[in-house]
Amino acid sequence: MNICVTGTGYVGLVTGTCLAEVGHRVVCMDHDGNKIHTLNAGRMPIFEPHLEELVHRNREKGRLSFTTDFGLANRDAEVVFICVGTPPHENGEADLSAVEKVVREVASRSSSYRLVVEKSTVPVQTGEYVSRTLQIYSPGGQGLFDVASNPEFLREGSAVYDFFHPDRIVVGVDSPRAENILRGLYQPILEGKFSCPVHSSCPSSPPPTFLVTDVKSAELIKHASNSFLAMKISFINAVADLCEKVGADVEKVSRGMGLDARIGKDFLRAGLGFGGFCFPKDLQAFVRIAEKNGYDFSILREVEKINKGRIELALEKLKKELWILQGKTIGVLGLAFKPQTDDTRFAPALELIRRLQREGAKIRAYDPKAAQKTAEEIPDIFIAESPYQAAEGTEALVLATEWPEFRDLDWERIRRAMVHPFIFDGRNFLDSSQLRAAGFRYEGMGRPQ
Ligand code: UDX
C-alpha cells in the first residue's frame, strides 16, 4: 500500500518505518527541515532500540523515504497517517493546530480517495472536526475521504517491539471501506507474517486483537488507557507512602496485588512517579476534554496531584538525611524519564534536579543516553562520564532512572568516592541489604528502614 505519514516524531518515525518493514511503500513528511535532513543523511533524531537499522534497511529497499514536501508525500498515497505533535496548551488542553494544518493540506491537495487516519493522541470528537475541515477545504468535497482513528500504544524504549507485538490494534472507523483498508494494512502483523527485528525467533504469543469501533470510542480508548496506567502508578505510590507510615514494604505489597490477574503486575512499581511526553499531557488533556463536556474527572486530578508530590517527598528525604541542602553536592544516576530512551521530557529526575538547585545544592549527574539532552535543558550541572565520576565528593547519591547497568556497580568504589555514603533509591531498584552491608545508609520509597 502507498502510505503518507505526516510528522516524524516518535509515533510517526516508528509507525512509518515499521509499516515499510512489513512491505508498504511509505513516505514520511515533516515541515521540520532539520529532522528530514538528519534522516536523509542517515542519522537518527531519536534513540530507540532497533529503529536505526530498520530505517537504513527500508531506505535501501526504496520502501521508506523522507521529505518536507507534502505534495510529494501525498501524491500516490491511499492512506495518510496524522502523526504530528499535539503538545499541551498552558491550560492542559491539547494543541491541535498541527493536526488541523495537515488536514487542510490533505483536503486542498488530494484529487483522489484518501483514508485520513488519526494516530497522534487527540481528544475525543477530534475526528468530527477533521471530517468537517476536509469538507470545507476540499474542492472535491467530503466524498473523497474517510476519517479513522488508529491510536498508538507504543512505549519509548520498546517502540519497535510494541509495533510488531501489540496486545491490540484499535481502529475507529465509520465505513466498511476504511475498516478493510486498515485491516489489510495491518494484515502482516495480524497473521504474524514478518521477520521480527527484535527476536531471532519470536516467543509464541496469541495474535493481537483487531478491535473495530466507531471513531469516538477509539479516540477515548487512548486517553483512557494512558490515564488508567498513570492511575495505577499513582495508586501504588500512595500505598508506598502508607507503607512508610506503618513500616510495611511496598515491593511486597505490589507483588501481592499483582499476582491477582484482575490487577496485573505491570505498572505497579512505586518510585519518583511517571514522566515522559505521554502520561502527564494525556492526563491533563483527558481531564480538560471531560470538563469541556461537563464531567469533573476528579480521580484523575488526584492522580496528577500524587504524581507531583513524589518530587517534594524525595526532597524531604534528602533534607532528613542532609539537613541543609544549600552548598551540598548531590549525585544523580539516571536522567531520562525511563530506561532505554534518551528522552528527558517531563522526566522526574530533571524535576528533582531543578528543585535541588533551587535549594542551593550542586548536582553531578550521569545517564548512559540522556546526558546531552539534559545539558541542553539544565546548563549549570556537572555531567559525569560515569556513575563513579558522578559520585565523587557527593553527600548523597540519588537513583532516579532504573538503567540496568546501575545494578552492577562497584559499590565499594562508589562509597570511597562519596563524602557521606547515603543512597536514595528513587526507583526501589537496588538491593538495600547489599548496600547496607557495604556501609551505605539506604532510603527507598515505601520500603522499611
Ligand atoms: C506510555 C504508554 O505506556 C504507551 O502505551 C503510550 O503509547 C505512550 O505512553 P511511555 O511514555 O513511553 O509509554 O512510557 P511508560 O513505559 O508507559 O512509562 C511512563 C512513565 O511511568 C515512566 O516515567 C516510568 O518510569 C513510569 N512508571 C512506569 C512507573 O513509575 N512505574 C511503573 O510501574 C511503570
List how many beta strands DSSP finds.
Answer: 14
Small-molecule binders here are:
uridine-5'-diphosphate-xylopyranose
Structural class: alpha/beta
User: What is the average per-residue confidence, as pLDDT, rounded to a whole number?
Assistant: 96
Strand order in space, largest sheet:
3-2-1-4-5-6
In DSSP terms (H or I, runs of 4 or more residues), the helix count works out at 18
Poorly predicted residue ranges:
none
Characterize the main sheet: 6 strands, parallel
Ends apart, CA distance between termini: 59 Å
Structure notes:
The protein is of the alpha/beta class. The model has no long low-confidence stretch (mean pLDDT 96). The chain is 44% helix and 14% strand. Helix 5 (97-109) packs parallel to helix 6 and helix 13 crosses helix 14. Uridine-5'-diphosphate-xylopyranose (UDX) is lined by residues 152-156, 226, 229, 233, 267-269, 271, 273-276, 278-279, 337-338.
